[in-house]
Structures are given as C-alpha cells and as structure tokens.
Amino acid sequence: MSRRAAPRGALWALLAGNFVIGTGVMVVPGTLNEISASLSVSVATAGQLITVAAVVMCLGAPLLAAAVAGWDRRQLLALTLLWYAAGHAVAALMPSFGALLPVRMLTVVAPAIFTPQAAACAGMLVPPEHRGRAVTFVFLGWSLASVLGLPIGALVGGHLGWRVAFGAIALLSIASAASIWLTLPQGIRPAALTAAAWARVLRSPVLMGIVSVTALQGAGQFVLFSYFGPILKRDFGADPTMLSLMWALFGVFGLAGNMLVSRFIDRVGAGRMVLLTSSLIALSLFLWPWAGTLPWLAAVLVPWGLGCFATNSAQQARLVGLAPALAPGSVALNSSGIYVGQAVGAGLGGWLLANDAVAWMNWAGFALLLAAIGLSVAIDRSRRPA
Q1: Contact present, 30 and 166 (Cβ < 8 Å)
Q2: For residue 239, what is the DSSP state?
Q3: Which of 70, 173, 187, 291 is the most buried (most CB within 10 A)?
Q4: Residue 61 Cα distances to 66, 117, 207, 328, angstroms
C-alpha cells in the first residue's frame, strides 16, 4: 500500500480515537468533586485515581509496545477501544472507591496502547516530509477532548452524576472502534523493534532527554491541573456549569494551540515549538496567584491552554522526525513520560492539597516547567554543529 494513497479518513479516525481516549483520561479530573461525594472519600483520595492510572499508562506504554509489535494496527487499535468501552461501563457500576480503583487501572491499559501506536501509525500513512503534520494532526484529538469532551463530561457528571459520564465514554469508544475498523487500511505493521533497537532508544541521550522534558512538563502541569475542579469550587464558588465553561475555555485555546503547531511545526522546527509552548504554560503558572476573580483566572488560563496539548504534539513530532525507524519505541516512551508526569504531579498536588498548602501548587508546577524548558534548550544546543 502506498503511503501517498492512504485514505485521509484513516487519519481522521485516528484523531477521533485520540479524542475518545483523551476524554476518558480527563473525565476523572472533570468529575472529581462528584466522585468524591458519591463514594464518600476526600478529594485528595479521589485524586489518586489519576495517580494510579498514570502509573499504569506509564509502565504499560513501552511494555505493551513490545508485546503488540507484530499486530495489524487496524485490529489492535479497534480492540483497544473496545477494551476502553468495557472498562468504563464496568467502572460506572462500581459501588465503592476500593472497587473502582482496580477497574480504573485496567481500563487505562487502552490509552497506554492507543496514543503511541496511533502516532506511529500516522507516520506510516504519509510521505516522510509530512510526518510532523500527520502526527500533530492525529494528536488534535486530545485537544478536541479538552474543548468538547472534558467540559461536556464535567457538565454531565455535575448534573447527572459521574456514572452517566463514564457510560457515555463507553458508547463513544464503541463508535470510535467501528470508525477505526472501517477506515484504517489493513496490513499496517510497523517493524517490530529488536532488543538492539530498544537499546538504541534507551541509550540515546537526545531521545531520552526529550522524554525527560515531557515528564517534567507533565508533572509541572498536573500539580494544579488535577485539582482544577475542587480548587475552583473552594476558592471561587464555581458550580458545575461554571466549571464546565472554564474547562471549555481552556480546551478552545488548547485546540487553537495544537492547530497552530500542526500548521507551522514543519517550518519552524519541533524544538522551537516545544520551547514556545512550554513557556506559555510556565507563564500561566507564574501568574496564577494574581487571578483573584473568575474573569482574571480565565485570562490566566489562556497561555496554558495554548501550550498544554500543543507541547505534547510537538514532542511526538520531534521524536518521529529525529529517528523515524525508532518511533514505535521512542513515542511509546514519550507517552510514558506524559504519564510519569501525571502521576508525579497528581501525587504532589494531592499531598499539597491534603496538607493545606494549595498556595504552593502553582509554584511547584512552575519550577518543574522551568526545569523542562532548561533541559529542552540544552538538548537543542547539543545538536547544533560547532
């Protein structure tokens, strides 16, 4: 099959799959207040759903990338979404936090597989000169999840309960699996990475440095991002409708940022895009303490929204562009980096919340973003000719 002849519909199906995956991952932050109240646990305890899920996704992405290396991607991605559907349906029936936690851990095996494999698959559907745009296009699904999925999930969860929100994600997952099955060409099997190839990825200072940048970015964001709902309810008296509007605002600018990156990344370069988007996130974290009203908070969230999902897209494209043959491994490890960051950030944020140190959450995130920016700049400088 010629990559130039690959149907455009396949890329749209991969984008839609990432939308469903992203919505399912973010439904917990969006309904954290409702989960906490429904299951009679503290917000900090409920937030550990984010932490343990991130740990599973982190460990699962590289391990499962090796396990499914020989699978036809059409079958693999469709079955992954069906697993996601089943997990959310079962989770919606769980009577207690103790029962929900292991179900959630099993459910998020799906994102550990889908997002990195979709990125690697997109790179095989187009000519080499269009890989950056294809990868960032597919990753737009996560931005759309923040624009539509997260605020709608928060609105549904706030008014109808988190169980209904989980059930809706199960239905969307089934529809997305059908879309993948109908549009993705058969026979897409990226070459399985040998032990030597994995060793090349793991021993590459540049590739592993980029993965470390991703982890630091994720940790810096999720210190605060994980607990948006509880903080806005406590400090600003935001009700479910207002929370949904704030999530939607964040998501609209997330989509705009990702679209701009997708359009200009091949021209500007992935490294510069990572620097720009990371700096926008850091700016919002720095300005957070001065957001004393909801309108000011909305303004502060704009740079963060522009950078949040766009920086992950740029990182994926950065890895695919540097070493296309190693992309299945490096992109899987980068997904692990995202989830390591989520686990560390959610855990640190939960600890600060439980210890009445909410005022330190943005500064902890800001420090981690500065570390990510510094490392990213150092990597780019190390690759420049003397």
Answers
A1: no
A2: -
A3: 173
A4: 9, 9, 16, 10
Closest CA to 122 of 52, 184, 193: 184
Token output for 163 = 């169980």
> Are 156 and 115 within 8 A, CB to CB?
no
Beta strands in the chain (DSSP E): none
Per-residue pLDDT, 214? 92
In whole angstroms, give the CA distance from residue 132 to residue 319: 10
Question: What is each CA distance from 282 to 287, 344, 379, in whole angstroms?
Answer: 9, 17, 19
Our CA angle for 246, 301, 17, nearest 5°, is 65
Q: DSSP letters along 65-95, please?
A: HHHTTTS-HHHHHHHHHHHHHHHHHHHTT--
Q: How far lies 70's CA from each of 5, 64, 65, 73, 135, in Å?
A: 23, 11, 10, 9, 21
DSSP 191: P
With CA atoms as reference, report the closest residue to 329 among 211, 232, 218, 239.
211
Among all chains, which residue has been given the structure tokens 């990572």?
Answer: 274
What is the distance in angstroms between the CA of the first residue and the CA of the last residue of the chain? 42
User: Can you read off the two tokens belonging to residue 229?
Assistant: 């709902």
Can you state the angle between helices 32-39 and 228-236, rounded to 10 degrees?
A: 90
For residue 123, give the amino acid letter: G
Cα 13 from Cα 31, distance rounded (Å): 27
With b meaning 16 or more CB within 10 Å and e meaning fewer, what string describes 5-23?
A: ebeeebbbbbbbbbbbbbb
pTM of the model: 0.73
Cα→Cα distances 318→273, 324, 345, 379, Å = 9, 10, 23, 12
- Per the listing, tokens 């935001």 go with 238
108 DSSP 8-state letter: T
CA distances from 285 to 51, 57, 144, 186, 364 (A): 21, 26, 22, 45, 9
Q: What is the pLDDT of residues 179-219, one digit of tens each?
A: 999 888 777 766 666 677 778 888 888 888 999 999 999 89
Q: How buried is 270 (Cβ within 10 angstroms: 0-12 exposed, 13-18 middle, 19+ buried)?
A: buried
